[in-house]
């Protein structure tokens, strides 16, 4: 009986997920539907044989329930005001539109900085603190503050090497904004702090706090310029073109191999844990007993001969 309940629950959840219309169950409705097993259909209060016979004579009988019957269940009645119907496609489009509107509203005032049109590559923790130190305790975006565009990259990442020339040229386009690059492989603690889950990642900082990430599928100079202008209101200085110097530095467009020592430490730790738990298993005990038994038999055979 226990497994039957679990099977019915899985079937109900599967039919709920695969249906083209989604129901937003809230509070009492969700609990009531689970208790009554009514998700997508309503039951009449009385038997349906008489109702079915009337349907053959009256084509509108489905729309007009007979006496003692109703098209809606008690759950539909008590949860009518709480039920919302939506289509999956419409819901996803609405969420994307809300996210776009939210990102479009993230526009801040930037205090001109002496960037000199060159890319600032971070090499120490002190430079990270000086660059991304929060200004004051206020998080209001309508207050003017220093704006910083930061690229989180890795020298061994092929996508970072592809983005490097375009990002080198971005600093030349916005001399009043600090354009910096941080090696996520070297400063891995910042990945968790700023939610860096993929490389390369470009983030716009205002007053030392992250504002928005670059989410365009085409990471090139033109889209970088649109991204900075959209959130800062500052226009670029020159034509959006790459030069030969952009391919040589400060960020190189060639992959450099790096040894991840922390990865070796992680593997050693995993192997040690596996060995430890293996010694606590019954299979390890059987192997040890088998070796001991074979050893005793060999010793006894040797003394006997």
UniProtKB/TrEMBL annotation:
Could you tell me which residues belong to the region Disordered?
Answer: 46-68
| UniProt entry keywords in alphabetical sequence | Isomerase, Membrane, Transmembrane, Transmembrane helix
Q: Which residues form the Thioredoxin domain?
A: 120-233
Q: Does the keyword Nucleotidyltransferase apply?
A: no
Keyword Zinc-finger present in the record's keywords: the answer is: no
Q: Which GO terms describe its biological process?
A: cilium assembly
Give a Gene Ontology cellular component term annotated to this protein.
Answer: cilium
GO MF entry, a single one: isomerase activity
Q: Where are the transmembrane segments?
A: 261-279
Q: What is this protein called?
A: Putative thioredoxin/protein disulfide isomerase
Natural source organism: Corethrella appendiculata
């Amino acid at each position: 009986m226990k497994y039957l309940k679990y099977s019915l629950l899985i079937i109900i959840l599967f039919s709920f997920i695969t249906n083209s219309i989604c129901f937003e169950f809230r509070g009492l409705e969700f609990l009531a539907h689970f208790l009554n097993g009514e998700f997508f259909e309503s039951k009449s209060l009385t038997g349906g044989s008489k109702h079915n016979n009337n349907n053959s004579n009256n084509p509108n009988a489905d729309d007009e329930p007979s006496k003692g019957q109703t098209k809606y269940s008690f759950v539909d009645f008590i949860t009518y005001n709480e039920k919302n119907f939506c289509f999956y496609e419409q819901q996803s489009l609405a969420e994307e539109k809300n996210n776009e509107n939210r990102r479009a509203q993230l526009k801040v005032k930037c205090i001109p900085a002496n960037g000199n049109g060159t890319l600032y590559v971070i090499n120490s923790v002190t430079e990270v603190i000086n660059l991304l130190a929060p200004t004051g305790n206020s998080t209001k975006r309508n207050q003017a503050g220093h704006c910083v565009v930061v690229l989180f990259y890795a020298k061994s990442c092929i996508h970072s090497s592809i983005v490097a020339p375009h990002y080198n040229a971005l600093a030349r386009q916005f001399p009043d904004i600090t354009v910096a690059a941080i090696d996520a492989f070297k400063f891995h603690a910042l990945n968790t702090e700023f939610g860096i889950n993929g490389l390369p990642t470009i983030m716009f900082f205002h007053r030392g706090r992250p504002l928005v990430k670059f989410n365009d599928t085409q990471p090139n100079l033109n889209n970088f310029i649109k991204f900075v202008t959209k959130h800062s209101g500052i226009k670029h200085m020159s034509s959006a073109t790459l030069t030969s110097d952009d391919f040589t530095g400060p960020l190189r467009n060639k992959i450099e191999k790096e040894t991840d020592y922390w990865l070796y430490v992680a593997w050693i730790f995993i192997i040690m844990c596996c060995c430890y738990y293996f010694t606590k298993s019954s299979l390890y005990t059987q192997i040890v007993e088998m070796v001991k038994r074979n050893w005793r038999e060999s010793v006894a055979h040797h003394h006997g001969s």
